Automatic annotation (TrEMBL):
InterPro entries: FAR1_DNA_bnd_dom, MULE_transposase_dom. This is Protein FAR1-RELATED SEQUENCE. It comes from Heracleum sosnowskyi. Residues 82-172 form the FAR1 domain. Residues 295-392 form the MULE transposase domain. PANTHER family: OS01G0519700 PROTEIN, PROTEIN FAR1-RELATED SEQUENCE 5-LIKE. Pfam families: FAR1 (PF03101), MULE (PF10551).
Amino acid sequence: MITTDLLKISDNQGSSCGDSSRISSGVSNDVSSGACSAENEGAITSYSMSRGGQRYFIPTCGDLNCIPVKDMVFESLHKAYKFYKKYGQQSGYTVRKSREKKNGENTLVLKHFVRSREGFNDVNDGSFSNVVKRRRTISQRCGCKAKIVFKYTSLDRFFVLSFVEKHNHPLASETGRQFLRANREMSLGLRTLVFGAAKVNIGNNKSFSFAKELMGGYSNVGATLRDFRNLDRDLKCYVGERDGQMMIEKFKVMHETSVSFYYAYDVDPARHLMKLFWAHAIGRRNFEIYGDAQSFDATFDTNKYNLIFAPFTGVDKHDKCVTFASCLLSHESVTYYSWAFGHFVKAMGRNHVLIITDQCPAMKVAVPGIFSSINGLVASKHRLCMWHILQKFRVKLGNRLCKETDFMEKMKIYIWSSNIDIDEFERGWEAVIKEFKLEGNK
């Protein structure tokens, strides 16, 4: 499968010899042209010669019902264009709309659809003009005369007036048709895949590979990696600086759908989102059951917005972590923590018995100021997280003392014991400090 996909890509890059043209009368394979030798080209390409020595290529369409025929009638011009576009996709070329003619009543009576390589690009004569320069790309126009003309008839219908089938250039091969612009389209399913991948920080390369596995091959995706990247770029441009407003609008819809969903936010004078708190119905229900003790961890940072993500977490009866609420804060200060804690009490209706935090000086002030008995509620107890404390042992004392001695094992006897009183803990602590001669260590 991988080898086949690589061959498909390589066949379409840097080569104009691969095509799928139908053999016409008077075929001659002994004429060379350009970089393609007559021997190699004759194996994969067939062409007819005009009297002037010009080669013409006639496409081969697998479905005979898709080949236009003169005097064929269509119910609308849109259906006629779709029919000719489908024929081009199966034949190995793309089409585009061209000139038209209208009568005195401004009714369209004649419409031309041509090959995308029809005509020639304008040649720059070196003169200066006010025309905006377009991105420099390789010109693909070669004056191809292949076209189809539809004429208006009664009952708002159109019929094929003329159809020129011959091309003056080789057509795309069957393996290269997937890269034609007409065959590349980001369907609703692919757009949903790119959008969903972007929400969970999955890049375009991985999402394109995932689409290939789902479709069974690169040729079945219907788009290229560049199309995936362009759509991701357009999504980011559409969001722009409105991401905060989009999040607030989503929370408004969630609150209208479920009254139990609680949210609050605050912005600065420049209308930038600085504080955001939310708690859904399941989280508020979990707090009623398992909200006696909870942890507030503010060590998570967002990589793009420089906001602090701090969840309110508890433990259920299965020893699994459950989230009660969450908040996004732009600063780790007493004011911001107090704002988040105040909305937590307002959303839950009561204080928790115990809250565990790290050794943050701002939390040391905000926790007793908000989770108090001012409003007639039971004041919460504030405790420090043991994991954060033990992590600092190696930083403060060094790895030699913590790893090469039994210092940590003797210290944990008194740290992790919940059945000793305060005096016993103090005596055990001082004994370990004295044994390892740490009395003068700050």
